[in-house]
Amino acid sequence: MAWGHLEAHFSTILGSFPNPLHHLNQFPYYSNYLKLSRLEFHILTEHYSAFGQAPKRLAFVGSGPLPLTSIVLASYHLKDTIFHNYDIDSSANSMASHLVSSDSDLSQRMVFHTANIMDVTDELKGYDVVFLAALVGMDIDEKVKVIDHLAKYMAPGALLMLRSAHGARVFLYPVVEPQQLQGFQLLSVFHPDDDVINSVVISRKIADPVNNDHDDDGHHHHHHELGIQSFMPLSCKYCEFQAFNNPLGQMKMIDN
Fold this sequence. Notes:
Order of helices and strands: HHEHEHHEEHEEEHH
Helix content: 25-40%
Number of domains: 1
Distance between the termini: 12 Å
CATH superfamily: Vaccinia Virus protein VP39
CATH class: Alpha Beta
Largest sheet: 7 strands, mixed
Number of strands: 7
Radius of gyration: 18 Å
Strand content: 15-25%
Low-confidence stretches: 210-256
CATH architecture: 3-Layer(aba) Sandwich
Strand order of the largest sheet: 3-2-1-4-5-7-6
Mean pLDDT: 80
Oligomer: single chain
Structural class: alpha/beta
Number of helices: 8
């Protein structure tokens, strides 16, 4: 669709420079990616901080020819994390790989896989966090199939960061409802501003309750995070995050 063509166009332009990553601000929405990625990093950190460390391995599903989310997160926020970028289009991956090939750090930490995510199975167990781009699953049935597939293969406790439609463009993308996150515990939803088309939904892969009720010494533990009572009222989460990062009102278009 049009956004993919825009990304491919600018990926080609950036790829003509000796070090493309030094010229990312030529992409007209780069500043929006900086803001959204900072927000997503803060949301991610809030829910991942219990582990006491940054995620080691992150997957981005639907990374495209200009994988700015992965690039920005890897460059500024998750500086030791390995990023596995999945796209069904081999030419998109070729363009994306070229952008980071001249960077000694990112070229070692960004891996590109050409695959339909529905064909990726056991590899998904190896990721601490999975990002799902808004463009993956262009109708709600397809989107739910992808989410169900991720629920089947992601590791228990791993986080799913999902971008959904918001604002004036809800008619372009399926809006993911909490009840469609089968196999995941909804942690929070953030709608940045009426002008922003992406909301951010974060959830945690629910562990098998049969295996989770006892630890190695046989003691019973109440895992409140799996209980419905631990769900935050969504209105409160909206308020919390909107107060937390008001400058995002300037963001206009982020589809990836």
